[in-house]
Structures are given as C-alpha cells and as structure tokens.
C-alpha cells in the first residue's frame, strides 16, 4: 500500500510564522495559517499527526545581494528548534527573496481588498505557500 506524505513550507517572521502544506500528491502548496512563535510547534505537530512530512521547507531570507544577514540568524535559531522537535524530518532552505511582495501582488490580482492585503498574517501564510511552491517546482 502506498503511503502519502506532505511537504510543509515555513515563512519565519519577527512576530509570526506562516505555514503552508502540499496536498498528499505534492502537486500544489496551500496556506495553512499564521502562528506565533509559541504556537507554531503545536501547529506543526497537528500537521504531522495527520500525514507523514517528507521535509520542512524553510524560507531562507537572503539580502537582495544574495547574502546572509540578521534575518538569517533568526531563521537559523528557528531551524535549530525545529530539529530538536522533529529530529527525523529533513529541513530544506529555500531562497525567499521577494515572496512577500509576490504574495501582495497575488492578493491584489485575486481581488482581495486593500485592507485585507495589509494584514501581515495573510501575507505570511501566502509567502509560505510561495516558498513551498518554488521548492516543488525546482525539486520535483
């Protein structure tokens, strides 16, 4: 019997963490939600309890010049926490440059109101889906 699994995309921000997941066939990434740093491990455990997770795909925040900075230090701390909580799940880093801008553009094209486009939580979870979709397009 074939078992199905998911990939989980993660966009780590200062205040919130956006999460997205693939469908069980790994064809499309869908936003799951936005969580505080305190809530995120519980949310990831919930996802892991419903399906096998092949990998976590974490947005790697490089500067526009492609260099690491303060933001990569914050994400690295989160990755270390993730490794402790989920030692058997591989963690992949994916360049996340411009995903927030793309997320806002997608919302505008989809007819989302200006007020809702300003909600950072919405942007974070869509950015997580974009990170995950990019990873799938380059690796599957």
Question: In this structure, how is the largest beta sheet organized?
Answer: 5 strands, mixed
CATH fourth-tier homologous superfamily = YqgF/RNase H-like domain
The radius of gyration computed from the alpha-carbon positions, rounded to a whole number of angstroms, is 14 Å
What's the mean pLDDT score?
91
Gross morphology:
globular
CATH architecture: 2-Layer Sandwich
Q: How many individual domains?
A: 1
* Unreliable stretches: none
Helix content: 40-55%
For the largest sheet, list the strands in their spatial order: 3-2-1-4-5
CATH fold name: Nucleotidyltransferase, domain 5
Share of β-strand residues: 25-35%
Order of helices and strands: EEEHEHEHHH
CATH C-level name: Alpha Beta
- The number of helical segments is 5
- Give me the secondary-structure category: alpha/beta
